[in-house]
Write a structure and sequence with these properties.
This protein folds into 2 domains: about 5-275, TIM Barrel; about 280-350, Alpha-Beta Complex (Type Iii Antifreeze Protein Isoform Hplc 12), CATH 3.90.1210. About 30% of the residues lie in helices and about 15% in strands. It has helices at about 30-45, 55-60, 80-90, 90-105, 115-125, 140-145, 160-175, 200-210, 220-230, 255-275, 285-290, 325-330; strands at about 5, 10, 20-25, 50-55, 110-115, 130, 155, 180-185, 210-215, 235-240, 295, 310-315, 330-335, 350. The protein has an 8-stranded parallel β-sheet with strand order 5-4-3-10-9-8-7-6. The chain has a two-stranded antiparallel ribbon with strand order 1-2. The longest helix is centred in the C-terminal third of the chain and has 18 residues, at about 255-275. It is elongated, with a radius of gyration of 31 Å.
Length: about 350
C-alpha cells in the first residue's frame, strides 16, 4: 500500500501540507443561512474542507423511550437518541445547496453517510469523497457499500481495536478501493488530552501503510499541532460561529478565531518539521563564522615548533578545522607567525624544511 492518497487531485501524505477539515455537524442550529455562514467562516479560517453529516433520526435509530435508548454520561447525558438526532441533523434538502456554496467559494465539501440511503443520496448530488465515522467502524456492510462507489475514503477509528480496524480496512479493499486514510480519534465529546494516545496514530500508519490523521475532539489546538508533529496528514475539528449558539455540538467546537490560530500553528509546525537536511542552513551563515578553529596564540618564530602552548582551538572559524590539531602539533613554522593568526597549512612544515630557502 502507498502512504499517499488523493482527494480531488490533491495528494495527501508525507511531504504534503496537512489537509484540514472543519466539521459543521449540528452547529448550524437549524438554520441554512447559518450553515452557509459557517462554510464561509471555515474558508476564511484556513480550512481545506467543510464537512457535514447525512442522516435522519430514523436512519440512525428508532423512536423509543426504553432506557437503553438514553445516553448515560458525557456531554449529552440524559438525551434520548432519537430526539438528539432530531436536534442535530442537517436536513437533506439543504445539502445540494450547501455543496454548491462550498464549491463556489473554493472549499471542499464532504459528508459522513450513516446508512445506504444516505450514500445513495450523496451519490445523487455528486459527492466526490466520503467520511466514515468512528461509531460506524464496525458497520462492515455500510463500509463495503461506501467503498464500492470507488471514491476516496477518510475513516475514523475511534474506539476501534486493531482487529476491528483491520476488518474495516479489509472491507474497503475487498471492493477494490485502495484510496483511503485512517484517523485516530478519541470518541468522547470533548476528548481528554491524556487519552488521545497519538502514538497509536503513528502505529496505524506503520501497520496499514496509508496516510493517517487525527479527528480531534479535545479542547484547544495543542492536540492537533502535536498530531501534525507526530505525522498526521489530516486534521479534523468541530467548527462553529459562536459557542453561545445552543446546539448539541457547540460546547466542544472551535470558533473561527480559534480555528484560524490552529491552522496557523499547524502551518508553522509543518515548516519547523521541514525535511531531512544535514549541514548549515542559510540562516546559520553568521553562526558558522564563530565555530572553533586552530589559531596561533603566541608569536612563533620561523623554525619554531607548534606546541599546545602556542596554538589552541578557539573561536572564530578562520583557521584549520580542530580535527587537524593533533596532526599539526610538532610541525614547525615556515615563517614568523604573529599571535592571533588563523593557522593554515601553508604556514607550517616538517622539521627538516630548509628555512630561508623557500
Amino acid at each position: 500500500m502507498s502512504h499517499t492518497m488523493e482527494i480531488k487531485g490533491r495528494k495527501i501524505g508525507p511531504g504534503q501540507p496537512t489537509y484540514i477539515i472543519a466539521e459543521m455537524s449540528a452547529n448550524h442550529a437549524g438554520s441554512i443561512e447559518r450553515a452557509k455562514e459557517i462554510i464561509h467562516a471555515a474558508k476564511e479560517a484556513g480550512a481545506d474542507c467543510i464537512k457535514i453529516q447525512t442522516y435522519t433520526p430514523d436512519t440512525m435509530t428508532i423512536d423509543c423511550d426504553d432506557p437503553v435508548f438514553y445516553i448515560d454520561g458525557g456531554t449529552w447525558e440524559g438525551e434520548n437518541l432519537y430526539r438528539l438526532y432530531q436536534k442535530a441533523y442537517t436536513p437533506w434538502e439543504w445539502q445540494q445547496e450547501l455543496k454548491e456554496e462550498a464549491e463556489r467559494i473554493g472549499i471542499d465539501f464532504l459528508s459522513t453517510p450513516f446508512d445506504k440511503t444516505s450514500v445513495d443520496f450523496l451519490e445523487g448530488i455528486g459527492m466526490e469523497f466520503y467520511k466514515i465515522a468512528s461509531f460506524e467502524l464496525v458497520d462492515i456492510p455500510l463500509i463495503e457499500y461506501i467503498a464500492s462507489k470507488g471514491k476516496p475514503i477518510i475513516m475514523s477509528c475511534g474506539m476501534g481495536t486493531l482487529g476491528e480496524i483491520e476488518d474495516a480496512v479489509e472491507a474497503i479493499k475487498r471492493q477494490g478501493n485502495h484510496n483511503y486514510a485512517l484517523l485516530k480519534c478519541s470518541s468522547a465529546y470533548p476528548a481528554i488530552t491524556d487519552e488521545m494516545n497519538l502514538r497509536t496514530m503513528v502505529n496505524m500508519g506503520q501497520v496499514f501503510q496509508v496516510p493517517v490523521g487525527l479527528s480531534d475532539h479535545s479542547l484547544g489546538y495543542l492536540g492537533a499541532v502535536l498530531g501534525v508533529a507526530a505525522g498526521a496528514r489530516i486534521v479534523e475539528k468541530h467548527f462553529c460561529l459562536d459557542r453561545g449558539i445552543p446546539n448539541p455540538d457547540s460546547s466542544f467546537s472551535m470558533e473561527p478565531a480559534e480555528f484560524k490560530e490552529m491552522v496557523e500553528q499547524i502551518r508553522i509546525a509543518e515548516k519547523a518539521l521541514g525535511k531531512v537536511a544535514y549541514g548549515p542552513t542559510p540562516q546559520d551563515h553568521q553562526s558558522m563564522l564563530v565555530r572553533r578553529s586552530i589559531f596561533v596564540v603566541e608569536d612563533i618564530k620561523a623554525g619554531e615548533a607548534l606546541t599546545e602552548k602556542n596554538i589552541r582551538v578557539i573561536r572564530p572559524a578562520q583557521g584549520l578545522a580542530p580535527k587537524y590539531y593533533n596532526d599539526v602539533l610538532g610541525k614547525v613554522a615556515l615563517t614568523d607567525i604573529r599571535r592571533g593568526t588563523p593557522l593554515s597549512f601553508d604556514l607550517i612544515g616538517s622539521k627538516d624544511v630548509q628555512y630561508g630557502k623557500n
